[in-house]
Amino acid sequence: MIATLLGLLKYPVTITIIKMIAAVAIVLSAVPMLVWMERKVSARFQRRIGPNRVGPMGLLQSIADALKLMFKEDFFPLRTDRVLFLVAPLLAFLPGVISFGLIPVGQAAGASFLGPNGVMAVSYLPMGLLVMMAVSSIASYGLAFGGWASNSQYSLLGGMRSSAQLISYEIVMGMAVLSLAMATGTFNLSEIVLQQQGHVLPAWNIFLQPLTFLLFLIAAFAETNRAPFDLPEAEQELVGGYHTEYTGMRYAWFMLGEYAGLWTMCSILVTLFLGGWTLPAAWLSPLASAPWFVAALVSFAIFIAKVVALVFFFMWVRWTLPRFRWDQLMKLGWKVLIPLALANILFTALVMEFGGWYAR
Amino acid sequence: MPANKEPLPSRLGWLTRIYIPMIAKGMLISLREFFRKPVTIQYPEQKPTVSQRFRGEHRLTKDAEGKMKCVACYMCATACPAHCITIEAEAAPPEWEGRDKVPRVFEIDMLKCIYCGYCVEACPKEAIEMTNKIPTVYRTRQEFIYDREKLLSN
Question: What ipTM was assigned to the predicted interfaces of this complex?
Answer without folding.
Answer: 0.70
